[in-house]
Amino acid sequence: MCGKTFGVVGHPIKHSLSPRMHNAVFKKLKLDCEYKAFDLEAEELEGKMREFKRNMAGINITIPHKVSIIKYLDALSEDAELIGAVNTVKFGKKTVGYNTDGIGCVKAFEEECVKLKGKRILILGAGGAARAIGFQLAKEKTEMWISDKIVQKSVDLVSEIKRKLNAKVHATTLDEKMLTGLIENMDVLINATPIGMTPNVDETPIDTRMLKKRLVVMDIVYNPVETKLLKDARKKGCKTISGVGMFVNQGAESLRIWLGIEPPVDLMRKTVVEVLKKR
Per-residue pLDDT for 240 more than 70? Predict the structure, then answer.
């Protein structure tokens, strides 16, 4: 395979694990490819995209460019159009945007043998990650409740999912009494907020007393590997799923899009976990 360059675009970006993860794959599979990180502010994006189209095979997009990147693309995949955000771009005759975040989330559940169809799921947060997860889980025929500290964000996201997919989804608040009653009847809890991320490792989005033994708890935060929420949930006897699974699987899906390969997911996970443990 002739040399191809890939990368991740965001701001800030220096702590991204994507270069380590993807370059480990290229080395393992002996592919003549490299993966770089590009720290770009909003005003730099348009000029850099012209350069990327000439010199690169694909990029990942992270905060804060997942929506603004769309104006520089020729087409969107079905999922990207549905979600209204892009995290993967493939360059070629056309520049096409994809969103692999929701697929990465579902695959993380599948790896833990958790079936989602028909499950009652509470999502904490209504930001970009929650959008991708919410739309994907709606396609999995779940029933969802979405809560955010800004209630209108929950209401707007729920309305959009209902309008586009006719799904069973409800908006709720982060009021402690309300959440306690909801969690009592949930099968799955997903933290789609940054609460608990390094360096704020002692923070958690909900009171530990709300957690029930039969609950499956996923935290999309992957640094640290085990957040306070997951530690608390494990102590309560809940099944827990780290954010590493979603991060690795969304990256693996990007590689399938770019190169048409079946990536070594176990190697990708091992690489990410090793770096996090050293940090």
Answer: yes
Q: Which domain covers residue 27, as residue numbers?
A: 4-99+245-278
- pTM of this structure: 0.94
3-state secondary structure of 15: coil
Q: Is-contact 89 98, C-beta < 8 A?
A: yes
Number of domains in the chain: 2
Which among 48, 57, 43, 65 has a CA at the least distance from the CA of 3? Answer: 57
Beta-sheet strand order (sheet of 88-90) = 33-39, 4-10, 58-61, 88-90, 96-98, 75-76
Whether residue 224 is found in the same domain as residue 112: yes
Asked if residue 189 and residue 119 are part of one domain, the reply reads yes
Q: How far is CA 194 from CA 126, 184, 250, 254, in A?
A: 11, 24, 18, 23
Catalytic, 66? Answer yes
Task: Please tell me which residue in 14, 66, 153, 239 is annotated as part of the active site.
Answer: 66
